[in-house]
């Protein structure tokens, strides 16, 4: 239906072009002037299949319900027949100049008509030149002349006449040179406004009177001539449309009242109707009987001229898509002739039903639109397309408005694409919207989007009304997989204030003015709000106030709460501790919840209240009693679902308490209690919902409870049970550190619907006569939902402490050095920091019957003696299944257990003063041995060989090592550093070996051995021995002088048999004298990589 309105414009326009042709009734004006016909009965012959006048008057939208606020009520009793305009045409008829012009033309006889004006004709005036084109007569009458010596000034009249119009023109002083004919401007002006109505009296064409000015500007209708007569006419006409048909509107589509009409302007330059340039402009208008659509046409140009372009015409630019540049336009004097249709601007303000909720109309249009034989060029756009109230972007549906979109065409190809609008970051206040602008290439799915970010915001989800952003903040919209992905990274500070709003319940009054955040990420995918893992943080710089009292907050966290929501967590502690006689402290963990939910049809972050995550309390009553307990709550947790965890620890009668620090968790007590419990629900409200629970308790004593088997005694007893839970992992270091009071330390349980029931029993043990030993052992069984045995676990830990481990070595050896430096990195697996002068150990044997039979065993021991001078650890990993078996004693880089966790190395370390010794060892046997340790980097660099020269190879078609057998190795490093007033001495030594005997499949061969089977029945032996020694001596004599600096290194590597390869290399370096000696010998052939035959 919209096309009918456009066609109506075309009818009016085409009619104005054709007003000089056709037949119809005439209208007399004066008997002396004969008859001037001033009505137009017919428009151009427009094809009926494109337009029907009756249908154009009665159409309506059947599928839309319009908001009719601006609907104009049609009153059949009120008509606008343009009477005022037609009355003005009588003034034209009475115009004296018009009467003179008509008389001059009508009084010409046949003998007064000439083909061309010459200077000899000036004495014969009046003379005329009359030409007829397509039913229209063009007359030029040279009426009178004033003769001067060199020229003449001629009064000239002109006339354009057909069955419908009679336009009269004239000029008083047209200069005629005796030498060259007409001089200067030969323009005849229309004497007055001339109105021509249609039959319906609803449309009038008013040919505008010619107006000139002293500065050369002019407007109105005119005709030009030369000595041969008529040349061309310039038509400047207004088309007035009755308010019965159309009404004027503003740019928002609102009707303008006050009796104003829609008046279009048309401009034509024509020499005949087959060679003309026409322009028409229509202000914003709408149909009287249906004001739902408003239309603007600005400077629509029809150029059908073969002799000239329209005045002020700008030729369309041609874009070269290969070079990415516009072709240079021709010089102004060489602009080629152009034929086609051009619109400076056309715009449609669509019906009110499309209007956005912020009262912005939906507008589509085009600017600088060229249509010619080469195609279409111009800028096509739409405004107010998607309102902020209903538009969304991204998977998380950020509020999004598309206020403008435009496409620039260059001869049927998209040259540019741009759009802009507004976007709202979900955590920001709903009314605080950000502007964005963008351009891109849709065919390449490439867009460049810039989002403007304000310096101040609000975070309603945290009740932070004042948020200040700092440098580093950025908002953006990316394009991934042809979808818009919004995001933001924010830095700054916020003021959290809870309890001040009417929406709050008043139970909590919290002020946190100093919350600072860095790299707070607002994402389109889960988690929607998080801190950047690379440098993100949230801290509190100013002490907060809770219920009008200052409090201590030890930390801030930002975590997920459930699948979508977020929590700003903080810990609170209030302490009255401070004396050995007693005291207490209490605290908890709280969280400000932000909920991501739909609000008024849009997803927004909202404040969901303050949640208590945990509560804890600790009470000390002198040396008599210590109690510590707490509760932790969770909801929507990714592991534990909804539920809580509780713990209780306590001790009675502290043993050997010395000072305040000895009273508490790490003290020894006559009687000690440790209890844990966890209850919860997984997938609440769903078909796969299930409940789980877990508890354990352990009571120990420093005295004997009962005899077990002499000299073993019981010093503790405990146990536990669980339902729909399962042991999910354990840490041997934490297990060893908990040997005194908590036999379950380091063990993790998680919900598991496949476990029906589990039970465990724990016995704490001691040895009569050995005061420094204590330990415990636990037996645990788990049964699945089919009542079948699922797991058997046997585990325990122990501790042996003795004064014999103490050594006053530092005082006796203090004269060796003034400093101490570790030579190697210690890789402990988590032994407790308070384990001085003791040995701790832990063991775990885990049997799994769920998938056949699997046995995994782990043992770890830790040594700390002489107040840290001597330390060490040992680790054992055992695994047995149908597919694989192994036993690892000690570990090294790259060695992992069946779960992929690294095996700690076994070592002994002695370090005091400037003397340090570090010895490591390992023994591996199994069906799938990993690569051995690499040669130390410092030796490889000294010798110039690869650190992986003798690594065990892999089968070519398998990424896992398949070699079976055994391997063992050890190394020792010595580091001595002595520094005195006049002497410095450094000694660094390292030696080690690695030996392996491997069994590869019999069908394998060496890649460098021409396809022959390697080894003996697949067995190969490899080994390497290496070492180096570095010494340096410096003396001080008004400066440090190096008197000795030597380094020696060697490596021996062997691989055999079939083929056999031996490599030996040694090197000596005297750095002081810059002297070097090397030895290298190689024999046999390298095996290369072991591959299948």
How would the global form be characterised? elongated
> Which percent bin holds the helix content?
under 10%
**Ends apart, CA distance between termini:** 79 Å
**Strand content range:** over 45%
Give the number of helices.
7
Q: Helix/strand/pairing class, anyone?
A: mainly beta
Structural Rg: 50 Å
Sketch the major β-sheet. 25 strands, antiparallel
Report the uncertain regions: 1-77, 809-834, 951-961
Number of strands: 64
- Mean pLDDT value: 80
Characterization of this structure:
With 1093 residues, the chain is mainly β. It has a domain at 928-1093. Helices cover 6% and strands 54% of the residues. Strand 1 and strand 2 form a beta hairpin.
Outline:
The chain is mainly β. Helix content is 6%, strand content 54%.
What are the salient characteristics of this protein?
1093 residues; 25-stranded antiparallel sheet; 22-stranded antiparallel sheet; 64 strands; 54% strand; disordered N terminus
